[in-house]
Specification:
heterodimer; A: alpha+beta; four-stranded antiparallel β-sheet; 14 helices; 4 strands; B: alpha+beta; Rossmann fold; OB fold (Dihydrolipoamide Acetyltransferase, E2P); five-stranded antiparallel β-sheet
């Protein structure tokens, strides 16, 4: 019989690996935990949102206890953390109870239902009942409070993003190609100067921007904002695309010309598909920049705010309702996340020979 | 299959840089022509002008007697193999080869046949569905060649196609290229800085320096009848040994004198040099034209500095004056460093160059 030798454990190496993974997991937790809390918070009721400790997951149902109170009917709610019922409201008016149920406990009940439960008190001292929570309540409230403004603002924001991508990608992409392929006087200076426009904070040049946009009749219009956003994004796009185009050997285009294509066809059939990952990355930057921007949008819009402005205003207005602010934040983040996931496919689509 | 004519072609970049100067050349049908020269001599620029990738500053280029000087590359009916192969990474091998055929509106069946023929000829038939990133350097090079021969061009242009391959593959591939040329009989222009590649492939070699043609000739011509010091030094491994010598004519005898040796010239060489009495010349002698002899027959004696055995022969280096002289000697007897060797020159293989102009006498 052979004895299998135990491999000597390399302690230093094992320790190194362990520390590495602890570090990685730590970073991940640090990054993901706030995001998780925002998501979870956006589904909590107002009452839950202000309990401590915060529940990790929102409850799907609310358990009630109803009995005769000093002033009228005493409503208690089961607290998952305490493991006991906690009195929350003592009122004689069923209408008040309905409002409280909806706004504070995110458990809407019809008047009929409430009166039925109250009627049961005539025969019993204490009654218990369970009702389903409205999980999307915060989102409904958010869009309800923002009212008729939220949806048009969302559409407006998407318009602005699309226009910003088109403007900055077409102009910046062409400039990037020129910087990558042609030698001309003052090339480096020009390339650096595209970044100079990013030096000025939007607030600092707000007044001249307003004046110019008003002059162009673009004030308070999506096109005006997308022009403002494009200025900064063109610079970024120039740098991203120039490096992409530089990474694609010119001889690939030349070969296409020798083998029967015109210059334009060589660009469209060879260079453009190869540059797609870079262009997608540039588009993503443009989208996120335009989508998230709030400061200039507050200054440069009046009656037609963007979605980020709406969220900002709602968050400001939602004092004492942190769960509502979370719902607004989520509504803001979701389109950006969707767009990034969609475009990620192109960024990952790197062709073998071209390293970017 | 076609002829190519370049008439006084000049290429200037900006106002000052002259890449190609007054280049005139006729390439007959089916010739394998090699443009050879050190880097920066304008050989690639010349090729790119023929392809149409570089504008011609002055002069004209004719393919089959048709002026193509101002035509875009796609109208010239040429094909090209690039130094970095330039095969398109987002297309499969098949698509790479078929691209040009598609643009020519070739029907599917013929196209398929043509692609497969080209792949067969270059030995990549089983790689057609792969992407370039999945191929080795040698296979990529074959794809580039297959793509170029599939279009059956009038002119086949190759820009240092072997320079990115390793030494062994390079030698094997150049034999294959030669075979493909023999099969397709396409007029071929091949650019290289590697003289042994040029020697082994070319029908004719055009040696260029500083944008100008230095010599046009067969491999034998440029090797044995180099027109000047540059060619003599550039062609051959090891290159021609060059030594300063004084010519002395005394009572009918013609002698080359040098601190290291004193050589009586043969009647033929003497007749050739009779007008250059008392001048300092440059003697050019190929490494294989210096022979080891017994002591009594030697014109000069020297200590072996280094000897490099090559299997079939050995290269013996000696120092004459301040110059290193290399000799190709038979591998037997083996010569050791420090050994004294006695040498003489093969009179019929000596070349003489004017010291001032560098031209051959």
């Amino acid at each position: 019989m052979k004895k299998t030798k135990k491999k000597p454990v390399n302690i230093a190496k094992a320790a190194k690996t362990t520390i590495f993974y602890i570090f990685v997991v730590g970073v991940m937790v640090a990054l993901l935990l706030p995001i998780y809390f925002i998501i979870s918070l956006s589904f909590l009721s107002t009452r839950e949102a202000y309990t401590y400790p915060l529940p990790l997951v929102p409850a799907l149902k609310t358990q009630f206890k109803l009995e005769q109170g000093k002033r009228g009917y005493l409503l208690s709610v089961y607290d998952r953390v305490e493991g006991d019922y906690e009195s929350v409201l003592d009122t004689a008016e069923p209408e008040k109870m309905q409002v409280y149920l909806k706004s504070q406990l995110a458990t809407p009940m019809t008047m009929e239902d409430i009166e039925q439960q109250i009627a049961r008190l005539e025969t019993e001292d204490v009654i218990y009942f369970t009702r389903r929570r409205n999980l999307l309540g915060n989102y409904q409230t958010f869009f309800g409070v923002a009212g008729f403004k939220a949806v048009p603002a969302l559409i407006r924001s998407l318009q602005i993003c699309a226009m910003t991508i088109i403007i900055s990608l077409s102009i910046g992409g062409m400039a990037g190609y020129a910087f990558a392929r042609y030698a001309f006087k003052g090339k480096d200076l020009l390339k650096f100067s595209t970044l100079f426009v990013r030096m000025f904070p939007g607030v600092a040049i707000a007044i001249p921007m307003i004046k110019i946009l008003v002059g162009l009749n673009f004030y308070d219009k999506p096109i005006g904002l997308s022009l403002v956003y494009s200025i900064g994004n063109i610079a970024l796009t120039v740098w991203i695309t120039a490096s992409i185009f530089m990474g694609i050997p010119e001889s690939l285009e030349e070969a296409a010309q020798v083998f029967g294509g015109s210059k334009a066809r060589a660009f469209l059939r060879i260079t453009l598909p190869l540059a797609l990952p870079g262009l997608a990355a540039a588009a993503m930057y443009s989208f996120l920049g335009a989508w998230n921007e709030t400061v200039s949008a507050i200054i440069l819009t009046q009656f037609n705010p963007t979605f980020s402005v709406i969220v900002y205003q709602t968050v400001l207005g939602a004092v004492g309702q942190v769960n509502l602010a979370a719902a607004g934040g989520m509504a803001m983040a979701i389109p950006a996340v969707i767009f990034t996931f969609f475009i990620r496919r192109y960024i990952r689509q790197m062709w073998g020979g071209v390293t970017i | 299959m076609a002829t190519l004519t370049l008439n006084n072609v000049t290429k200037r970049f900006g106002k000052k840089v002259v890449a190609v100067k007054d280049f005139s050349l006729e390439v007959p049908d089916r010739e394998f022509l090699v443009l050879l020269g050190p880097s920066g001599c304008g050989k690639t620029t010349t090729l790119r002008m023929v392809a149409g990738l570089e504008e011609v500053t002055e002069g004209t280029i004719l393919i089959d007697e048709v002026d193509v000087t101002d035509l875009p590359p796609r109208r010239r009916d040429v094909s090209m193999v690039f130094q970095n192969y330039a095969i398109w990474p987002h297309m499969t091998v098949y698509e790479n080869i078929a691209y040009a055929l598609k643009l020519k509106r070739m029907d599917k069946k013929t196209m398929d046949k043509t692609v497969k023929e080209a792949a067969e000829m270059t030995g990549i038939a089983e790689l057609l569905e792969r992407y370039p990133a999945q191929l080795s350097g040698g296979q990529q090079q074959r794809v580039a060649v297959a793509r170029a021969i599939a279009v059956k061009p009038k002119l086949f242009l190759l820009d240092e196609p072997l320079s990115n391959l390793d030494a062994k593959l390079r030698v094997a591939t150049r034999t294959e290229l030669k075979a493909i040329h023999d099969k397709t009989e396409a007029t071929t222009i091949f650019v290289t800085h590697d003289q042994s590649e040029a020697m082994s492939l070319a029908d004719r070699i055009v040696i260029m320096k500083d944008g100008e043609i230095v010599q046009i000739g067969s491999p034998d011509d440029v090797y044995h009848r180099s027109v000047n010091l540059f060619v003599a030094d550039f062609i051959g491994t090891p290159p021609t040994n060059l030594m300063d010598v004084d010519l002395k004519v005394e009572n009918g005898d013609c002698r080359l004198v040098n601190p290291d040796f004193d050589l009586n010239l043969s009647a033929e060489n003497a007749a050739n040099l009779k007008d250059h009495d008392k001048k300092t010349l440059v003697l050019g002698v190929r490494p294989e034209s210096i022979v080891l002899v017994p002591e009594e027959d030697g014109v000069l004696a020297a200590q072996c500095l280094v000897s490099e055995p090559q299997g079939s022969h050995q290269i013996v280096a000696i120092e004459l004056g301040d110059r290193m002289v290399k000799i190709i000697a038979p591998s037997d007897p083996r010569i050791e460093a420090g050994e004294t060797v006695h040498l003489t020159f093969k009179q019929e293989a000596l070349a003489f160059f004017d010291k001032e102009t560098g031209l051959r006498i």
